[in-house]
Design a protein that fits this description.
The structure holds 2 protein chains of 2 kinds. Chain A is of the alpha+beta class. Helices cover 33% and strands 21% of the residues of chain A. Chain A has 6 helices and 13 strands. In chain A, a hairpin with a 2-residue loop joins strand 9 and strand 10. Chain B is built from 10 helices and no strands. Classes of the chains: A alpha+beta, B mainly alpha.
């Protein structure tokens, strides 16, 4: 299954009407926040003056912005005072911490230390490459390029070259494999290859790195060989939603609705 | 205990701290205090000082996301504990505010998912669309708002915010209620500027639709 290729913006703005594209409206929103600069800002300001539909949308956007600010930005005086327990938390902070917390390495190691570390890393990397190479050569066949880990009791299957296989706990997969995940599964897929995952319900799928697409009640995941710092999206009918930004890993939790059967 | 002026460096706020045997937390920058924590020091000076400086402001942000005062206090306390645990990950490339806000938003997000916040459990009563009488014309939002009592309007808009998807709600709170710029929001959300632009726009559109009783448009 190939992920649906969606444009970055919807072609027509649902609320805006008047032939405005979503790209126009996104710009308008940024303009309202003073987040456009230079030529982009000048061009949009000119268009607002010339195009009645754009001007009306700008005014509506500004009105709802003003209402939100007025209603939801709390007056400091209207907020309750922090509890005594909260106010005293500062003095209790050090006791609340665990005895040992992680410590950063020194920022500026000596040149000798830097050279030593670089040499050590290079040696370690070379050794690892040799070992992995020998291991893979011994195994023969295609080289494993990632792994998937599913929660106990969950049903995860692989389709590889037309054959369906059960995945037990820790499983190597290959580029082109397809994973079928049941609704209860919690799956972690890791590896920069193009493996596809299909979930039949509200499964929890962590994929790193990769993209997630939600289509008609099915969750489809496809790796695209991106680097670890690239962007990850959950695309839903409601728009693009960024993955949760957890520092240790990226996790997607998408509760899907069952597909509506044809009448 | 530390007790002398901190030689905070603007270029590298962590530079020189290791050599500093004495430390004046009150005179140090936020980033110097964070550096102290990154080195495994200052848990009795730097951390309480950061809490004293930013605790109340953090409480307001947590309240804007969670909507419950007690849950917000717990979230802020949790976030400050995480500052000490995560300080070693800071590389001096972001301000303390950005580093801490990211931690706090993550803590609030986790709490919401675990159902700790009051608003998400449905204690806000009344549908915004009903309260607005189903009036759909966006240009009339301000007229409708003027007809409502301040508290009613506040609850209505809060209720509408609660209905937004998590990401839209977070960026709107950071932008509209905290007044952060897009670049800072992008750093906090670990996103690009384009993504932030789109989320803020879509959050606004969705919020407007909810207030106008058109939210079903997004769920068809």
């Amino acid at each position: 299954m190939t992920p649906r290729a969606e444009p970055l913006f919807a072609p027509d703005a649902a609320a805006g009407g008047g032939g405005l594209s979503e790209a126009d409206l996104v710009l308008l929103s940024a303009y309202l926040d003073g987040e456009l600069e230079g030529a982009e800002r000048e061009a949009l300001a000119g268009r607002i003056e010339r195009e009645p539909a754009l001007k009306a949308e700008y005014q509506a956007l500004r009105a709802s912005h003003d209402v939100l600010i007025a209603a939801a930005r709390p007056e400091v005086s209207a907020l309750p005072a922090p509890s005594e327990s909260f106010a005293a938390f500062g003095s209790r902070l050090s006791r609340a911490l665990p005895d040992e917390v992680p410590v950063a390495e020194a920022l500026q190691p000596s040149w000798f230390r830097r050279i030593f570390l670089v040499g050590l890393c290079a040696f370690g990397g070379l050794l690892a490459l040799l070992l992995v190479g020998r291991f893979v050569d011994k195994m023969g066949g295609p080289k494993p390029s990632g792994w998937a880990l599913n929660s106990p009791g969950a049903k995860v299957k692989f389709i590889r070259e037309g054959r369906v296989m059960n995945a037990d706990g820790f499983e190597h997969f290959l580029a082109g494999d397809e994973l079928l995940v049941d609704a209860q599964a919690s799956v972690l897929v890791q590896g920069p290859v193009g493996v596809k995952v299909t979930a039949s319900g509200p499964a929890k799928v962590s994929f790193w790195p990769g993209e997630v697409h939600l289509e008609e009640g099915r969750l489809a995941v496809e790796g695209t060989g991106m680097a670890a710092r690239d962007s990850f999206f959950v695309r839903t009918p409601d728009g693009d939603v960024r993955a949760n930004g957890d520092e240790e890993h990226f996790q997607f939790e998408v509760a899907t609705q069952p597909a509506v059967p044809a009448p | 205990m530390d007790a002398s002026p901190e030689p905070a460096s603007r270029r590298d706020p962590r530079a020189g701290l290791a050599a500093s045997a004495m430390f004046d937390a009150a005179g140090a920058t936020d980033e110097a205090l964070l550096s102290r924590l990154a080195e495994g020091k200052g848990r009795e000076t730097a951390l309480p000082e950061l809490f004293a400086r930013h605790g109340d402001k953090a409480l307001r942000l947590a309240h804007n996301i969670l909507g419950d005062w007690h849950a917000s206090e717990e979230a802020v306390q949790d976030a400050f504990l995480r500052v000490a645990e995560k300080a070693h990950l800071w590389r001096g490339d972001a301000s303390f505010n950005t580093f801490f806000t990211k931690l706090l938003v993550n803590v609030c997000r986790s709490r919401r998912r675990r159902g700790h916040d009051v608003l998400a459990k449905g204690k806000v009563t009344g549908s915004p669309s009903k309260m607005l009488g189903g009036v759909a014309a966006s240009s009339r939002i301000t007229d409708i708002a003027r007809q409502m009592q301040a508290e009613e309007l506040r609850r209505t808009v809060r209720g509408a915010l609660e209905k937004l998807p998590e990401k839209f709600r977070e960026v709107l709170v950071l932008r509209e209620l905290e007044g952060l710029d897009y670049k800072t929001i992008a750093e906090i959300q670990d996103a690009t500027l384009d993504e932030v632009r789109i989320w803020i726009y879509r959050g606004r559109q969705r919020l407007r639709a909810i207030l106008e009783g058109r939210e079903e448009e997004f769920f068809e």
